[in-house]
Specification:
Strand order of the largest sheet: 12-11-10-9-13-14-17
Order of helices and strands: EEHEEEEHEEEHEHEEHEHEEEHEHH
Distance between the termini: 40 Å
Number of helices: 9
CATH superfamily of the largest domain: Nucleotide-binding domain of ferredoxin-NADP reductase (FNR) module
CATH architecture of the largest domain: 3-Layer(aba) Sandwich
Length: 288
């Protein structure tokens, strides 16, 4: 039996939010953890972060961006439809300190991870500052949800269409320069962004956790696609992370690996588009 989608909404171009019935995960999940789902019984397994949980209603919230075949299939579903199967919670939860000042730096779809992190940090009595970045205003997601929880929220857009113009690293550097005593930084977003967030904090000796969700494929450690070198040792993001000491991560290696399967991913997407167009022409052929 599948997991029913109880609510669906497009929150930005090519970005959707689903609330899904998953009582076990809603009760047990923690900030930083993820689920694995399949859209149908022949579908690939994809990992998605648990953006929010509602234990009372037995639902979890997932936020995803359409980037390939499976996420396009997922986006075609709506409230009332069912996900074929869904497993979780998986991965290690974010280590939540108490009584500290923590800055959460999110970029793009990474804001879906910032949301539960800020909530957990606030519940543990931390001062929490969120820096949320996007290329443009229309691509910024979950601003209201995070603002409602964080002590301070700073918005940046690459084109200056909203908030302050520039990168999240500029806002982070300004925060440091104004004398804010930052005990820890947690960053999640595009790998290049996380690399430069870590480069920004390293000279100041600020501990920084990088959430390496973008690397995960299978989610169980079997496929090896999420291998990452941390402190010179091979680690697996899905089972040993997804969060690691950002100052120890070999980001250049990750950036190279992320491009490995792009040709195959494009072929898969093209075949899916072709298959959607074939039934009508196939029917015509049979009736001739």
């Amino acid at each position: 039996m599948g997991n029913k989608i109880t609510f669906a909404k497009e929150i930005a171009p090519q970005t959707k939010l689903f609330e899904i019935e998953a009582e076990h995960i809603a009760r047990r999940g923690k900030a930083g953890q993820f689920i694995i789902l399949r859209v149908n019984d022949e579908g690939e397994r994809i990992p998605l972060t648990i953006a929010h949980r509602n234990p009372e209603q037995g639902t979890i919230t997932l936020v995803f961006q359409v980037v390939g075949k499976t996420t396009e299939m997922l986006a075609e579903l709506d409230a009332g439809d069912e996900i074929h199967d869904l497993a979780g919670p998986l991965g290690k939860a974010t280590e939540i300190p108490t009584g500290k000042t923590v800055v959460c730096v999110g970029g793009g779809i990474g804001n879906a991870v910032v949301w539960p992190q800020v909530q957990a940090l606030k519940e543990a009595g931390n001062k929490t500052i969120a820096i949320l970045g996007a290329r443009t205003k229309e691509l910024l997601i979950l601003e209201d949800e995070i603002k409602a929880l964080a002590d301070e929220t700073i918005i940046t857009t690459d084109d200056g269409s909203y908030g302050r113009q520039g990168m999240v690293t500029h806002a982070l550097e300004d925060l440091i320069q104004r004398g804010e005593k930052i005990d820890e930084v947690i960053t999640i977003g595009p790998v290049v962004m996380m690399k430069f967030v870590c480069k920004t904090t390293e000279p100041h000796g600020i501990p920084t956790q990088a959430s390496l969700n973008p690397l995960m494929v299978d989610g169980t450690g079997m496929c090896g696609a999420c291998r990452v070198t941390v402190g010179g040792k091979t680690r697996f993001a899905c089972v040993e992370g997804p969060e690691f000491d950002g100052h120890q991560v070999d980001f250049d290696e990750l950036i190279t690996r992320l491009s490995y399967y792009k040709p195959e991913e494009q072929v898969s997407l093209n075949m899916y588009h072709q298959a959607k167009q074939e039934p009508a022409s196939g029917t015509n052929t049979k009736t001739q």
